[in-house]
Write a structure and sequence with these properties.
- With about 70 residues, the protein is mostly helical.
- It contains two helices and two strands; from the N terminus they run αββα.
- Strands 1-2 form a two-stranded antiparallel sheet.
- The longest helix has about 40 residues.
- The N and C termini lie far apart (about 80 Å).
């Protein structure tokens, strides 16, 4: 980068790491292998949480349906 570009405040095209936010080249998502592995762990954790919430929702709805059918006659 030239001195004049720095003095004018020009910032070269870049993007930021999805995990730590460091500057990376435009065509990359992560700054290191460690950040890439951390992102994979976060994605797995989010998938697991989504499945758990879906199961809890289904069990809750089934319970409410059963409860409404069993208390209908009384």
């Amino acid at each position: 980068m030239s001195e004049t570009a720095i003095k004018k405040g020009w910032i070269p095209p870049h993007s930021h790491c999805r995990v730590c936010g460091k500057s990376v080249p435009v065509n990359k998502e992560f700054c290191s292998k460690q950040c890439e592995e951390e992102a994979a762990k976060i994605t797995q954790r989010n998938k697991r949480s989504s499945r758990l919430y879906l199961i809890i929702f289904i069990v809750l709805m089934a319970t409410l349906l059963l409860w409404s059918f069993t208390t209908r006659g009384s």
